[in-house]
Amino acid sequence: MKIAICPGSFDPITLGHLDIIERAADIFDEVIVVVASNSTKKTLFSDDERVRLIRRCVKAANVTVDTHDGLLVDYAKEKGAAAIVKGLRAMSDFEYEFQQALTNQSLYPEAETVFLCARGKNMFLSSSMVKEVCKLGGDISSFVPPEIAQDIYKRCKGDS
Ligand code: ADP
């Protein structure tokens, strides 16, 4: 049984994240989406809210969602994960992701970092761009899963 973890902030999940999670679910037996919990970082949604938003969007039966606030490799070890799956949008993602991958490799070589290329249509998508557009009153419907668009609008307007 090959377990993969898909880590990220997911504040909030975008169609780019969802695509990577679903493609990982097609490759691995089990995928755990790991929401990075960081009490010092200001987020639009709390850890639990981000977990619930992700659960509402992901349809694949072999995907579960969890939070973790320590070293990712400790979580990978605890779950017996064979892979850490990351999405790459552009060369600009590469340097940081490569550094992370080499660090994780030296801390826990049993888990391979696997990079999936973003789809062309998702190359420009990021959670921060979604929040910026939404706060300025723009249409985010083509950037985020339809199940959660209203939650993001409400939060950005300060209604919830
Ligand atoms: P963001 O960069 O949007 O804040 P995260 O830190 O939550 O996202 O990223 C989690 C993972 O998802 C990272 O591996 C990141 O490269 C990947 N990712 C983010 N946005 C996209 C996208 N539009 N297409 C593919 N992968 C993405």
Q: What order do the helices and strands come in, and which of them pair?
A:
Elements: E1 3-8, H1 15-27, E2 30-36, H2 47-57, E3 63-68, H3 72-79, E4 83-88, H4 91-107, E5 112-117, H5 127-135, H6 149-157
Parallel strand pairs: 1-2, 1-4, 2-3, 4-5
The structure holds adenosine-5'-diphosphate.
List keywords for this structure.
binds adenosine-5'-diphosphate, five-stranded parallel β-sheet, 42% helix, 160 residues, single chain, 19% strand, alpha/beta
Structure summary:
This protein has 160 residues and is of the alpha/beta class. Helices cover 42% and strands 19% of the residues. The protein has a 5-stranded parallel β-sheet, with helices on both faces.
Explain how this protein is built.
There is one protein chain. Helix content is 42%, strand content 19%. It is built from six helices and five strands; from the N terminus they run E-H-E-H-E-H-E-H-E-H-H. The longest helix is centred in the middle third of the chain and has 17 residues, at 91-107. The model has no long low-confidence stretch (mean pLDDT 95). Bound molecules: adenosine-5'-diphosphate. Adenosine-5'-diphosphate (ADP) is lined by residues 8-10, 14, 16-17, 20, 86-87, 89, 93, 118, 122, 125-128.
